[in-house]
Amino acid sequence: MCPQADSITSPTGASTALRSGSDRLQELGGRLVSHFYKVAKTVGMFGFSNVITKEAVVTFMETATALLTHHEQVLLQTASDCLFVNESRLKIDIEGFTSFKFVIEELKKRDIGGVTFRRGLSEADLCEFLRLFVQFDDAEGNAYEEIEEGLIAAGVRTASLEEVRELAERNDQVEVADSHREVSINTYFKSIFVAKQFMDSSRGVRPTNLRKANRVVHSIVDLVAEDERTLLALTQIKNYDDCLFTHSANVCVLAVALGQNIGLDKVLLGDLGLAAILHDLGLVGVQSIGDGPDLHPALGVRRILAGQGVSPASIRCALATLEHHLREDGSGFPELDPAHRCSLLGRIIAITDFYDTITTPASSGAPTFSPEEALRLMAHEGRAVFPRSLVKAFVNTIGTYPLGTAVKLSTGEVGIVHGRSSSLGDLSRPKVKIIQNAAGEAVPHEVVDLIDTDPETGAHLRSIVAAIPAYAFFDDFQSFTDAL
């Protein structure tokens, strides 16, 4: 196990008592989005008489009232796949991604650029807005007008809509980064959302949208080909609540990066990424239908073929799903003919699935391996169960200290792994972005190469003395991505 972070000061360790008004707006704005998601979903599913809906309305009102205590009005708006409250961009995290994505998509579906709530908002006004919002979902292409007219007819003055084109005219006041880093972060979140949609489709909640999954996978393939650093770093973030979905996204990114490293063409990379997103599809509901977890690869195959039909791509995807728990020495599951040899895509997913699983904290409290320990285990003890050439390629792909890992250096400085080692012969000396000095103070970010030596003594200027996963070091997702 990697050393604990007790001796490492978090870069966001300031007291919550010193939070600025902007921080408070971020906190309440995030809550508003989460409560909007919950109340809209419950109204759509149960109507207004259900106790769950009533509780959701009360919770939303509490947050809206807290915001309106400090602001005459609260404008929740969307632009460039981001959400803003009073033109302050809300920071998204993994826990809140589902609610953020839902609100963005539901507003877009109705051609709504924003929703304004004003002081004096009552439960009656909120319920009338929600009734209209849920009733008109743009099936006829005029939801915006129907909702706006409905609010006016009902005499609601504390809730109103803003058109997308009106918002676009003011976008010059809102800075929206369109960098490769931002695109990578957005794509990673989309892959989590797609994984969740597939799991929901297996529960019968909604139909599978294969085209959306393919778009996300192709975006990942393109980003990995261009510069995979941000995407690979994001796989260091682990999340208990949505572990199945984040795991599927992580395996997809890791598998595509490994496939790219060994020279797979774009078509195969697309098939590999899709198979990785879907590899645990069979886990959904295995206990409720009487199957054991060992049967989930076969159940996943059944669901993939039922949803995609039979084609060369779907067969490759299904085969990799079937094989991702099979090992080179014949162990694993499900039990197949002893003469069966796993496909290349199946072997890649087996490696990346195993790695992400053992480096992710389990809610059961099972031991978690550091990335370094996991790679050592796979390279040495795993020789009989994983192809040695692929494991070696995987180590070369992510490095002994993967991108995004927080490290304490021999100088007392703290940094985050920023790039692979410039020496293929020593992967334990990556490039590191310094984020704290020896006194624990935040410093302007400087990238150093741990391969550098003192010209007089030949000794390395810096070495890693402790490493800790990003999810355990950084206080929140935003502080992590800011450090990348």
Task: Explain what this protein looks like in three dimensions.
The chain is α+β, with helices and mostly antiparallel strands. It folds into three domains: 16-173, no CATH class; 180-398, Hypothetical protein af1432 (Orthogonal Bundle), CATH 1.10.3210.10; 406-468, no CATH class. It is built from 18 helices and ten strands. The protein has helices spanning 21-46, 51-68, 97-109, 123-135, 143-153, 164-169, 180-202, 210-227, 229-234, 243-261, 266-278, 296-308, 312-323, 344-358, 371-381, 388-398, 470-473, 477-483; strands at residues 73-79, 82-85, 88-89, 112-118, 159-163, 406-409, 414-419, 431-436, 442-449, 464-468. It has a five-stranded antiparallel sheet. Helix 10 (243-261) packs across helix 16 (388-398) and helix 13 crosses helix 14. The protein is globular, with a radius of gyration of 25 Å. It starts with 20 loop residues before the first helix and ends with a helix. Residues 1-20 and 165-178 have low confidence and may be disordered.
